[in-house]
Amino acid sequence: MSESDRVFDRETLLDATVNFVPLVILFIFIGVFLVANPWGDGITDLMTIYMYAIMLGMVVGLSWLTYEIMKRL
Q1: Which of 16, 28, 46, 71 has the highest local Cβ count within 10 Å?
Q2: Which residues of the chain have pLDDT under 50?
């Protein structure tokens, strides 16, 4: 298979690996919020649940996207 026949090239691989940086940042934020809990009375607070749902949704979406890109390399 020649370089021009490949769907993804070196630049696409670099773009996919860059997705790991936001994943690490998201995991750090989730860990800090689980330990520190600066705003709430606990995990039952509705806004806290929304915050975790949004962050975990981003983690799942970015992980899935990165997995699909890496799988096709």
Answers
A1: 16
A2: none
